[in-house]
Each structure stands twice: as structure tokens, then as C-alpha cells.
Amino acid sequence: MPELPEAETVARQLRTRLVGAVITDVRVGRDDIVREGLVVVPWYRGSRLVSVRRVGKTVVLGCEKGGETRHMLFELGMTGLLFFTLLHPSYQKHTHLTLSLSGPFPALHYWNPRRFGRVYCLDSEGLRAFVTRRFGCDPLDVTWEQFRDVIHRRRGRVKALLMHQPVIAGIGNIYANEILYRARLHPDRVASRLRVAAVAILYRVMREVLTEAIQAGGSSVRDFLAPDGTKGDYRKHHQVYNKSGVLCPSGCGKTIRRLKGERTSFICPSCQRT
Q1: Annotated catalytic residue within 2, 5, 187, 227
Q2: pTM higher than 0.70 for the full model?
Q3: Which of 42, 121, 148, 172 has the fewest Cβ atoms within 10 Å of its own Cβ atom?
Q4: Which pLDDT does position 142 carry in this prediction?
């Protein structure tokens, strides 16, 4: 499932290759995929792509036409991807939106076989309202003081908090597991009871893990591919995720355990005690 590092990888590729291109056509494969703005889809024809950014796990394209700016927000969901070129004829079936473009990259395809993601067509005011309603602080932009306050205001479990998008936007199950292992925190620890020193470690490790993952192009655990079709290499650096039964990399002598729950956790029972 694409998380913050994967969405950032997508946004960076689109930004460096598509900004400045003109959208010559928009083809919608499934009407139910486009939300809050299907009626304005024709507006994007003839608009210029002027910006690309990431918000949480989503990618937002900014388009300008006649002095007006509108946005397309792509939810990647469980399996959503953006491609410059469809990698196989079978991908056509689940390509729900295609932008035809001027320039060296003639198209951008939104592919999503499980249809958990959506595309939102929004004006600037609508985008601000959408982001405010759906997304909390960004892990790479939040200050230490803001993060400390977020953690200490919450009585829930720390892993659930890290993954709760209206509070902290962008972290999913893969990176929550990796972050908590490196911070030596059990996922069931109550967030509000963590000492300031533990929160400081969590803050530092969270930013380190996400930054390292972005530099590696994200994690291609199952379906993720960047727009140019490349895989993310950070899966090679996972220390606990999906490594049940493997010796803990800390050298403590224990093996990684899998904890069943709403979202599967992987922990070292020695390094991450409750």
C-alpha cells in the first residue's frame, strides 16, 4: 500500500517531468472514481500543469487556465498508481483516468485495480477545505513542539496514533512498524503516557525512517511502482515488517514476532517491551 515515501516518490517524478505540460485531453474510465467535480473535468482540457505536491498519501496536481487554478487530488488507496506508460495491456482494464499531455511524456494514467482510491477535482478553496478535513500534520513538516503536543493529547495506542490520518498524515502499517522498532517502542504503548525523552526519540526516528525510504524510492512490497515503472528499494532495509521468525537485527538473540490485530504488527519482544 503506498504510504508517504511512495507518494513523495510519485510526486517528485511527476514534478520533474510534467510541470509545464499542457493537458490536451482527459479521459475518464469510471465515473464513480472521480469525486467532487466530475462535471468540471472538461475544464482541465487546455490547462497547464503548474505544480505537483504530496499531501499525506495523496498526490495533488495544480492546473492553471485563464488565470484560474484548479487541482486534481489522486488518492492512491491500497493499490492506486500513476504511470507515464501502461506497462502491460492488462493494465488498461483498471485505468480509471488518463491525462493526455504535451511534451516528452505524452500521458499520465491513474490505475487502481481495487478501486479504494479516488480522484477529486477541486478549486483552491475546495482543496484547502478537503485537506483540513482529512489530513493532520505532516511527519516531515511538523515541529518537535507540535509533535510532542499531538502525542501527549492522545490516550490511544501509539501505533494507531501514528497511522491515524486526521492526526498524522502519511504513515501506514509498513512504516509504523519500522519506526516503532527503531524507537524501541511497543505498538500498544499508550501515547499520552510516553515520557518526553521517548517522544523525542520517536520524532527523530520517524523523520529518519521516512527520509531514508524516500531516498530509496519507497518500498515495493507488493504492487508499488513509481510512474516510470521502477521499484522502490527500501524494502531491502526493512528491519521488522513481514519478518516474523527472523532474528532481531539488534543482536538481542530474540526473533521477530507477529502480533495479530486490526493491522498486523511486527515486534521484537525484547527490544519493544510494553
Answers
A1: 2
A2: yes
A3: 42
A4: 97
State the catalytic residue, choosing from 17, 54, 57, 235.
57
Residue 57 annotated in active site = yes
Q: 108 and 23 in contact (C-beta within 8 Å)? A: no
Percent of residues, the chain, with pLDDT higher than 90: 81
For residues 26 and 98, the answer to whether their CB atoms sit within 8 Å is yes
User: Residues of 207-223 as b/e, b for ≥16 C-beta within 10 angstroms?
Assistant: bebbeebbebbbbbbee
Report the candidate in 6, 11, 56 with the shortest Cα–Cα distance to residue 219: 6
HSE on the CB side for 33, CA within 13 Å? 26
Q: Measured at the alpha carbon of residue 137, what is the angle toward residues 97 and 184, in degrees to the nearest 5?
A: 110
Residue 3 annotated to the active site? yes
Exactly one of 15, 53, 207, 263 is catalytic; which is it?
263
Catalogue all structural domains in the chain, each as residue range(s) with its CATH number.
4-134 (3.20.190.10), 144-267 (1.10.8.50)
Helix (H, G, I), strand (E, B) or coil at 119: strand
The CA distances from residue 245 to 251, 268, 270, in Å, are 14, 10, 14
Check 3, 6, 75, 178 and give the catalytic one. Answer: 3
Q: Which is nearest to 52 in space by CA: 1, 91, 80, 13?
A: 13
Distance CA 181, CA 175 (A): 10
